[in-house]
Amino acid sequence: MNLKTRKVAIVGTGHVGSHVAFALATQGEVDELYMCDCDEDKAIAQAMDIRDAVSYLPHHVNAIPAKVDDCGDCDVMVISAGPLPDITQDRLETLGSTVEVLKDIIPRIKKSGFKGIIVSISNPADVVAAYIQKELDYPKHKIISTGTALDSSRLQRLLSELFHISRRSITAYAMAEHGSSAMVPWSRVAIQGKPLDDLQRDMPERFPQFDRNKMVEDMKYGGYIVLKGKGSTEFGIASSAAELIRAIFHDEKKVLPMSVYLDGQYGQTKVFASTPAILGKDGVEAILEVEMTTEEKALFDKSCDTIREHLAKTASM
Questions:
Q1: Is residue 201 a part of any domain in this protein?
Q2: Residue 1 located in a structural domain
Q3: Looking at the structure, do residues 163 and 254 belong to the same domain, yes or no?
Q4: Is 2 inside a domain boundary?
Q5: How many helices (H) and strands (E) does the chain have?
Q6: Which 8-state DSSP code applies to residue 12?
């Protein structure tokens, strides 16, 4: 019997990468973890710390320190390397520093012969995913960024707290940039299939009106509250990444908000931006174009322009 183990490489084992690794381990979604970091002592420590936890995990996990060059046979590679943003910085302002880190990592990925799915987390998420894809000349359907998966979770939390409704009953997601220009297609927000607009009209006491623009701003600012209070985001992004990886490993064909390469969808080309898409074992299987109002589409286009503008800057970095 030939059984294949599920192997994930974590490139960058700091606050984000280590939590992604541990989320996969505690959820039973990985068999082998390759912990890669320019700080070899950190990679050794993170791998050992996970191995120390194995006795109390759902199944055996082997975590080892590794070099990116040695990760060619992994199924998924999580790229979470790069600097944490300062509380005063927009994610886009970290681009130069992140690109410098990637200039060392990308040749190592090429050398490894890696052919699996790349899940990019490093910020600015959409620009970095595009940069990696271009520099590696990688199949576009096999590289994604977590993008607005985390923003969408924050939006669902805010709506759940407002309406006292289970998040699992709420369909709501952010789109375009994982950053200050992210937008929400409110016309598509629904609770168990019924549009929010209809619920607010039919049941105003149960589903009162609220300031939608403020909620979008609260959604965007949520990460900075976490960053200010503890120095980095960890649990939310780890859960978001684990959800994407689970969809890949189990070939779930799950529809999730994530940053993917747009090639004509929404009238956009040559840009990574978040939209609902179908994810399975071979990567992105299809992009679901969401019908938006004229105002929503204008916000989406503007956000894509922001991503494209910053991607152009990488040519001179």
A1: yes
A2: no
A3: yes
A4: no
A5: 9, 12
A6: -
Same domain, 153 and 130: no
Angle at CA 258, nearest 5°, toward 255 and 264? 90
Cβ-based neighbours of 316, under 8 Å, separated by 6 or more:
none
Q: What angle do CA 130, 316, 134 make, to 5 degrees?
A: 25
Neighbouring residues of 212: CB distance < 8 A, sequence distance ≥ 6: 184, 186
The gap between the terminal CA atoms of the chain, to the nearest Å, is 50
**pLDDT at 1 exceeding the cut of 80:** no
Global pTM value: 0.96
Do 291 and 166 share a domain, yes or no?
yes
Is 104 found in the same domain as 79? yes
Backbone angles phi, psi at 34, to 5 degrees: -105, 110
User: Taking residues 134-142, what's their average pLDDT?
Assistant: 98
Segments of 12-79 assigned E as strands: 32-36, 62-66, 76-79
Strand 7-11 and strand 32-36: pairing?
parallel
Active site residue 178: yes
Q: What is the pLDDT of residue 52?
A: 98
Which of 19, 178, 250, 310 does the annotation list as catalytic?
178
51 and 75 housed in the same domain: yes
Q: Which residues form the domain of 119?
A: 7-145
Domain identity same for 116 and 218: no
Are 158 and 223 contained in the same domain? yes
What phi, psi does 219 have (nearest 5°)? Answer: -60, -45
Tokens of 202: 């039919």
Look up residue 73 and give its two tokens.
Answer: 């046979």
For 43-96, write each residue's pLDDT tens digit: 999 999 999 999 999 999 999 999 999 999 999 999 999 987 776 777 778 899
Verify that 66 and 168 share a domain, yes or no: no
